[in-house]
Give the backbone structure.
Amino acid sequence: MVKALAARGLVDEDARLTTLGRITAIQSLPLKKQCNSIAITHSTLLWESTSHPEKYAHFWFAQQGYIGSYCEGGGFGAAIKALCLDELERNSIFYNTCIDAREDACLKGVVVLSHIEKSRLEGVFKRIVKTTKTEYLAAFSEIISYNMTQEWYPGLSLDFAEALFDAVPKEHFEKLAHWISTDHSHRNGWPDLTLIKDDRLRFVEVKTTDKLHHSQLVTIPALINEIGADISVLQLTHANNSRGMPQKAR
């Protein structure tokens, strides 16, 4: 039995659970127990099930004074890209060619560059901490002007970009840029909502009836470890609400 589990990478040679083994065990638990296992809070919200769950939760938080996005890691990814857009353009494989390197930088970002030329990343990352707020907002506006960006990451706005800039130290942006470019699996499993209120950042994973998936059980604890992120799960429960408006959370 132990040998079989070890062969699957679930236990080590001393029969102790590996990280993979712990994640696999947590995957089988009910949602609330999953949250307890990774030390994040779980709450519920009445939901009109004809509406899109992430948008519904996002709207509810907006009523509480939060500014945010509902496109998982897309908001943070766009912000990182905006903080080093000029460097991304200069390091594009299309720079000084007939192809638009600026558009390439706006649409691809650090992850694609990490696939092509990792040695160029350090210069890009160093730019993140030097970029002014004015430069950042101009670059973010440029990034979200593309129809493809709006399709991939709906709901991004300059208000969100500014709130995120004010709430997150640039060192955290740089750390996350390193993190997602050194292990591409870190692009998966981000919480659905990125929210800011009173210059404080929080992430919320929105669930209906499903559990936390493997990628979320990897990424959520890692985000907490990397930047001390405030992460919680909001479970939407069915409600007979004819107007489709969020009800009181508990």
About this structure: The domain at 31-72+189-250 is CATH 3.40.1350.10 (Trna Endonuclease; Chain: A, domain 1). DSSP finds 13 helices and five strands in the chain. Residues 241-250 have pLDDT under 50 and may be disordered.
